[in-house]
Design a protein that fits this description.
The complex is a heterodimer of chains A (about 350) and B (about 290). Chain A has about 350 residues and is mainly alpha-helical. Helix content of chain A is about 70%, strand content about 5%. In chain A, the strands form two sheets. Chain A has a two-stranded antiparallel sheet. A two-stranded antiparallel sheet of chain A has the order 3-4. In chain A, a hairpin with a 2-residue loop joins strand 1 and strand 2. In chain A, helix 12 packs across helix 13. Chain B has one domain: ABC transporter involved in vitamin B12 uptake, BtuC (Orthogonal Bundle). Chain B is globular. Classes of the chains: A mainly alpha (about 350), B mainly alpha (about 290). At the A-B interface, helix 6, helix 12, helix 14 and helix 16 of A face helix 4, helix 9 and helix 11 of B.
Amino acid sequence: MRRALSYAWLLALFTVPIWLQDQYLLHVAIVTGIFIIAAMSLNLLLGYTGQLSLGHVGFFGIGAYASALAAVGFDVDVFGHTFVHDPWPVPAAFAIGTAVAGLCGYLIGKLSFRVRGAYFVIVTVSFAEVVRIVAVNWVDLTQGPLAVTNIPPFAFALPAIGRYTLYSKVSNYYLVLLVATAAYVTIKRLVGSRIGRAMIALRENEQLAVSVGIDVTRYLVLAAVVSAAMAGAAGSLYAHYIRIVDPDIFVFLYTVTMVIMVITGGKGTLAGPIVGGLIFGFVPVVGRSFASPEVQWILYGGLMILVVFLLPQGITPAVRRLAAARIAPRPNGNLDVLPDASQAGGR
Amino acid sequence: MDQLLQHLVNAVVLGGTYALLGIGLTLIFGIMRVVNFTHGELYAFGAYAVYWFVATSGVNFFLAIPLAIAAGLLLGAAVEYLLLRPMRGADIDTTMLVMIGAWIVMQNSEMIVWGGVAKSITTPFPESPLVVGPVSVSWLRLFALGFALLLIAGTYVLINRTKLGKAMRATFQDSDTAALMGVNIRAIHTATFAIGSGLAAAAGALLGPVFLVEPTMGDLASLKAFAIVILGGLGNVTGATIGGFALALVEEMGAGYVSSGYRDAMGFAIIIVVLLIKPTGLFARAERVG
């Protein structure tokens, strides 16, 4: 039943370009999809291990830059050695972007999970800021504020039709949908596995988890790597869709956007980032007709505070609880709808 | 050598205001366990308040600064009363999200009220700097340093010599026991947040006239304040004071001898290095206020 529902959703998303002819709305759908991938990756860390990464845009931007530079090519001087890189095909660049971001996730995870909590937050914020400053100043590699331009769009060499380049919005939409589905399935599998249960155990009660032999650092670092790589993949998609990358990609508001998406949608739920992402992806479309960006941001900030006050678990669990209560009061066997013990206990 | 002296002087001048920023945040972080993202906005608010008093209302510059600090105190108290008081007992992540929301609201409100264009504040100080041998310092910067040192000393007295300070230290060590001893924890939290915010506003009020006032100035200030707090150790006022001067010194030297483009990256490099070597902060004995 649930599986059928998932397929129905997927099918519905698949038909979007057929009935949505408006190019602007399709563009919004693509960018929203990219941010939903990033939000899903953030949710893996925040929702399942309980660690808030406020430097997630760092991974996103690194994925974008690494992928763009791999596809465009560069030559840099590092301490007298010249490194020349010839342009690579975009799918290979996408893999590079994902891998480089994942590697950064590994380093940050190794570095900061010794301290955790508030310190992890600050390390990740600092990381994103350092990366931004490097992107501004290492002009040799990144062109600094002049931006990396002429980034090629995705292209595949298919055996039957030959080379297919994704110029149109419709084809980009399907690419994003494909990657988003892959990311969703990856997270679903991961969370449902032994590893995922270990992560949730860590979030709920770290001391207890350690006492039963869960290797905390290992699982946290693993979550950080997967999460960062996924954010990097989203960044790569963004770079090859927008086709220009400048240091503004590291703006803190992007991280905040991802956090808002996860929190309002429901952290620690599979559907949460998608629900939150759709809301905050399309609300600006409605909002921009009557409010300036500043007013919109004020509304987001206010909404975020309201959600934390009124629905601390987010929208998805609230809706699910409501639905469950309506159908029949049944025992809840699903781990991901259990209220976060740390929050429930605190009130 | 002359250049080094000049850098040292610049670092000391900047360090005074950094220390204010750090002390404010370390009090809030240490006593209330709140990762305060509005700290930078209060810094920006302090600067804007001075601008507003001086440029729009025609208040005397020397009166405008205490007024801006008072406004910061009140705003901080209001934020604590409205947002944090209902959240007491919630975990650190939840309150942090509320503070991020508040930060977004405050920054964009500033954008609406004062616009996105950077503002400069006119001061009564002479344009020509004070020149002592090879070193020159503007009178305005000297005034900022003096005022900052005064406020730092005042904070020390407040925490170590007054009843309120004693209650704050007790709350920091063990809030439950403090409550049992008759300390009004809620009032202490409001007072702590107000004082911390007031110090941030003071830093903004003093640095605003030195640099320009712009809506996003608070972002870097927040992050720098976090760097100072980590450097000095959570809740450690002496650590934050030293940390403020240390950060200013590293930034100034880094900008002078490494690359000016990486000036603002120095603080974050410090965070990462400190957390690697000594996560409790360089000056931490045990966690305590004072």
